[in-house]
Amino acid sequence: MMHRRDMLRLLATAIPAAGAAVAEPDFTLRIAPVTVELAPKRVVKTTGYNGSSPGPLLRMREGQMVAIDVINETGSPNLVHWHGLHIPSQVDGSMEEETPMVPAHGKRRYSFNATPAGTRWYHTHTNAGRDLKRATYTGEFGFLFIEPAQNAAQYDQEIFLALKEWDPYLTTAGEDEGLDVGYKYFSINDRALGHGEPVRVKPGQRVLFRILNASATMHRRIGCAGHQFRVVALDGNPVPHPAATDALELGPAERVDAIVEMSRPGVWVLGDSNDHDREAGMGIVIEYSGQTGAPRWIAPTDPWDYTAFGNSSTSAGQAQGIPAAIPLVIPLVIEKKFAGTRWMDKWTINGKEFPKTDTIKVQPNRHYRLVFDNRSDEAHPLHLHRHSFELTKIAGKATSGVRKDVVVVQPKSVIEADFTANNPGPTLFHCHQQMHMDYGFMNLIDYDKS
Fold first, then answer.
1. Quick one: DSSP state of residue 316?
2. Residue 136 pLDDT
């Protein structure tokens, strides 16, 4: 018997019969070499989409059937992952989920229903290992925004900002001198701080910033000097309690939507709180009309806490309409294995490295609690494909209502998150830190067909 998954995979790769009409795509992405000029004499050669990095903003309506042609003009097979979308595994953009590769010098069409609404993004989803010219180390990323059917947000400007490092290199770090990745250059979008156009504002305006950490490996703490962010969505999902903070923290692949009230005329810096990285490019100028002078920086001081935006409640599942029921617990114990001096550390989930991990079986429409038990000395941005999860406990503190697809689990800490198994097919769970993912930190969740 052919399973539905196998039938869909065949349909996704089928070639139209001779003479058959092929509808025009809604979007076309071309994977090809690009040159990014971050600043004068600071030029990066990488791969990107449609001649640039970030790639084009893909804007679509909630519930719209979308066709995207991906043309691979490079000499290596590739994939595009539609991060944060609830779509079939055959088009999600992960070979572990059996999405067909886009062949070298070939073409493939991705077709899916655009859901859920909010700030999503797209990026390559390949292995890099020690080759830092591949995978998320490259410029292969871009914003994807799904317009909600009802948009109640009120703002005067909407600005998309992607945080990115460039020209990675291998270095040693820590007492054990294991290999790590460093970067030569930094930028927001495709320009280093002080180069390119500032964000121009007027007093009294409300500016909605949609911020993405497009890094392969780096966590970021962002401030907007002299101003407060009012966080309205995390990973594209509206939060139950929008709250003000002068600092945003984003692990790789996280997104924050925040409104800034322009109430302090002047010239300011929105950028990273790390002085070296900000001064080396990780920032952008905010310029009020009629104001001049050197941009000012004020370091943010507020702590970052997911629970500040949620309900102080032990009732999980409210945001997703999950019925009150005891969830089935899935423990996920995260540990590091030292591989040797000047080697990449290995990572295990429940004592095993991918692909030797045990596939986690779930039942359709059942309610599960993921227990992310980080026993390592590093923070991990954990991503679940094709589903959203609701945070229910952060380091012992109960919460509800905050829905995400990436959550940063701090060293030696535990986060609990609930999800409903409502999107059948193989589903990848992994750390979004590229080095960790490449060296064992992945697992598959699949639906029981019995």
1. T
2. 98
Token couple for 174: 């820590």
Tokens coding 45: 């050669």
Average pLDDT for 137-148: 98
| Residue 11 pLDDT > 70 | no
Which pTM does this prediction carry? 0.93
Inside any domain, residue 267: yes
The full 3-state SS of 152-204, as one line of letters, equals: CCCCCEEEEEEEEEEEEEEEEECCCCEEEEEEEEEEECCECCCCCCCEEECCC
Q: What is the CATH number of the domain that holds 386?
A: 2.60.40.420
183 closest CA partner among 154, 218, 224 = 218
Q: Is 101 exposed, middle or buried (0-12, 13-18, 19+ CB in 10 A)?
A: middle
The H-or-E segment that residue 6 falls in is helix 4-13
In the numeric block, which tokens belong to residue 142? 């871009």
| Mean pLDDT to the nearest integer, 286-308 | 97
Of 243, 276, 304, the residue that ends a domain is 304
Is residue 152 assigned to a domain? no
Q: Is residue 312, in this structure, part of any structural domain at all?
A: no
Q: Around 426, how many Cα atoms within 13 Å sit in the side-chain half-sphere?
A: 19
Q: Is the pLDDT of residue 317 over 60?
A: no
Q: Rounded mean pLDDT of the chain?
A: 92
- Whether 309 is covered by a domain: the verdict is no
* Half-sphere exposure for 325 (CA within 13 Å, toward CB): 14
Residue 274 clears pLDDT 90, i.e. is over it: yes
